[in-house]
Specification:
Layout lengths: L1 E2 L8 E17 L2 H13 L4 H24 L4 E13 L2 E15 L2
Parallel strand pairs: 1-3
Antiparallel strand pairs: 2-4, 3-4
C-alpha cells in the first residue's frame, strides 16, 4: 500500500479514486507514564511517554485505514491527514483519513 499526503504518488498515475477511507484508535494514558510525563513538565524536556503513545496510535490508525483501502481494492491512499480529539479526561482519539485509489506505474 502506497500512502502519501499528496494528491499523487510520484512515478504513478491515478487510475481511479475508489472512496474515502479512515482509521482511528482511542488511547488512554497509563497512570505511571502520566506521572513521569508530569515530572518532565516541571523539569522540561521531551515527554517521551506521550511521544511513544502518539507514535503507536498513528501506526494503528494507519494500519486500520490501510485495511479499509485494501477491502475496496485500492493499492494507494492519497491526501492522508491526521486529526486528534479528546474523548474523555485522559483519553484521546487519533483519526487518519485519505482517498483510497488505484494507481499504476508510469510507463
Amino acid at each position: 500500500m502506497k500512502i502519501t499526503n499528496t494528491e499523487e504518488v510520484p512515478g504513478y498515475k491515478v487510475i481511479e479514486i475508489v472512496g474515502l477511507v479512515e482509521g482511528s484508535t482511542v488511547r488512554a494514558k497509563h497512570i505511571g507514564k502520566d506521572i513521569m510525563a508530569g515530572l518532565k513538565g516541571i523539569t522540561g524536556g521531551e515527554m517521551k511517554e506521550y511521544t511513544e503513545l502518539l507514535n503507536e496510535s498513528r501506526q494503528e490508525a494507519v494500519k486500520r485505514m490501510s485495511l479499509r483501502a485494501e477491502a475496496l481494492g485500492a493499492n494507494a491512499i492519497l491526501n492522508v491527514r491526521f486529526s486528534t480529539s479528546s474523548v474523555s479526561q485522559g483519553a484521546a482519539e487519533l483519526f487518519a483519513y485519505g482517498s483510497a485509489a488505484i494507481v499504476e506505474k508510469n510507463s
